[in-house]
Amino acid sequence: MGAGGGPTAGGGDRAVPRTLTTRELRSGYGRRTVVDGVDITVPTGAITVIVGANACGKSTLLKTMARILAPTSGSVLLDDEEVSALPTKRLATRLGLLPQQPIAPEGIVVADLVGRSRHPHQGLFRSTSAADRRIVEAALVATRTAHLADRSVDELSGGQRQRVWIAMALAQRTDVLLLDEPTTFLDLAHQVEVLDLLTDLNRERGTTIVMVLHDINLAARYADHVIAMREGRLVAAGAPGQVVSPTLMREVFGLEAEVITDPVSATPLVLPKGRHHVVDPAGARA
User: Fold this and answer.
1) Reduced to 3 states, what is the DSSP secondary structure of residue 132?
2) 236 with 42: CB under 8 angstroms?
3) Which of 256, 257, 229, 224 lies closest to 241, judged by CA?
4) pTM beyond cutoff 0.90
5) Who contacts 213 (Cβ-Cβ below 8 Å, separation ≥6)?
6) Of the residues 57, 111, 175, 207, which has the fewest C-beta atoms closer than 10 A?
7) SS3 15
8) With contact defined as beta carbons under 8 Å apart, do 20 and 208 qualify?
9) CA angle, 253 as apex, 247 and 258 as ends, to 5°?
10) How buried is 276 (Cβ within 10 angstroms: 0-12 exposed, 13-18 middle, 19+ buried)?
11) How is 231-279 classified by DSSP, letter by letter?
12) Strands lying side by side in the sheet with 233-238
């Protein structure tokens, strides 16, 4: 059982501690630079959450770290090796990416899609072992998608499909896992369930997790380390209690807000100030 009382996400093997860093990283699309001179060090064996306004470069940063995009300059290093120089299969056993809008082959069923995540761990003829089948089954159970195993991915709702993709990411059993908005399409209860599941994976297996989240309060609650970006550049990095502040909200999101202590998790809790819901000293709402 995981820390949250649900099915375990970690499995029996421990992740190998990996260092993931970027140095003066620049990347983008064509002549348009989106990530501009970013230096980060991802804490090993921790959960890092990247936050920032829309189009600030969060997804582009993840794609470049995962070698989906090539840097225009600078470098991405995994254990001090350039990811661009690593053989594809070796990289796929060490670092995995769940993109924002993954695409499944037409007509594929859930169990087969999740099973494809085991290919980097298999031999030349890709024979599926009993261990592979156990890992796939455990990932389906952990994400509560086992009952969908024989269903076509095309038939699933957005929320069901997202949980299947997360099962695939879990079954890949990489040492580092990058996730771009993994709570997309999920209602609040399933968002918390998925984030609890990823926390189980981190705590039980030691997987280094880096994810993009839009909800700053969920980011502050689940992250060990927060990276804040604005217009392609790094603004701040550190523990949520050190980083999340009214000043950061103003600088990164252009939002006036109060930051208090979350009574549930004792992490920062952001209270946005809109134009219509601010109480004046006399107790009247603006």
Assistant:
1) helix
2) no
3) 224
4) no
5) 49, 50, 51, 181, 183, 219, 222
6) 111
7) coil
8) yes
9) 45
10) exposed
11) TTEEEEEE-HHHH-SHHHHHHHH---EEEEE-TTTSSEEEEE--SS-PB
12) 95-98, 176-180, 208-212, 47-52, 225-230, 233-238
Find out whether 142 and 167 touch, Cβ atoms under 8 Å. Answer: yes
Token pair 């290919």 in the structure block, residue: 119
Residue pair 228/235 in contact (Cβ under 8 Å)? The answer is: yes
Nearest one of 38, 109, 29, 32 to 69, comparing CA atoms: 29
Spatial contact of 279 and 258, defined as CB atoms under 8 Å apart = no
The DSSP element (H or E) to which 167 belongs, if any, is helix 158-172
Output the six-digit token pair for 144: 């509560």
Q: Using CA atoms, how far apart are residues 38 and 199, in angstroms rounded to an integer?
A: 26
Residue 277, both tokens: 């819901």
pLDDT, tens only, 90-137: 898 899 999 888 888 999 999 999 998 887 776 555 667 888 889 899
CB 2 within 8 A of CB 205: no
Tens-digit pLDDT profile for residues 255-278: 999 999 999 999 999 999 988 877
- DSSP3 helix / strand / coil % (the chain, rounded to 5): 35, 25, 40
Task: Look at the chain and count its residues.
Answer: 286
Cα-Cα-Cα-Cα torsion 241, 247, 249, 253, nearest 10 degrees, comes to: -140
Residue type, 214: H
| Domains of the chain (ranges, CATH numbers) | 20-272 (3.40.50.300)
Helix (H, G, I), strand (E, B) or coil at 158: helix
Q: How many degrees, rounded to 5, is the angle at CA 56 between CA 50 and CA 58?
A: 35
Q: Which single residue is written with the structure tokens 């470069």?
A: 57
Decide: helix, strand or coil at residue 77. Answer: strand
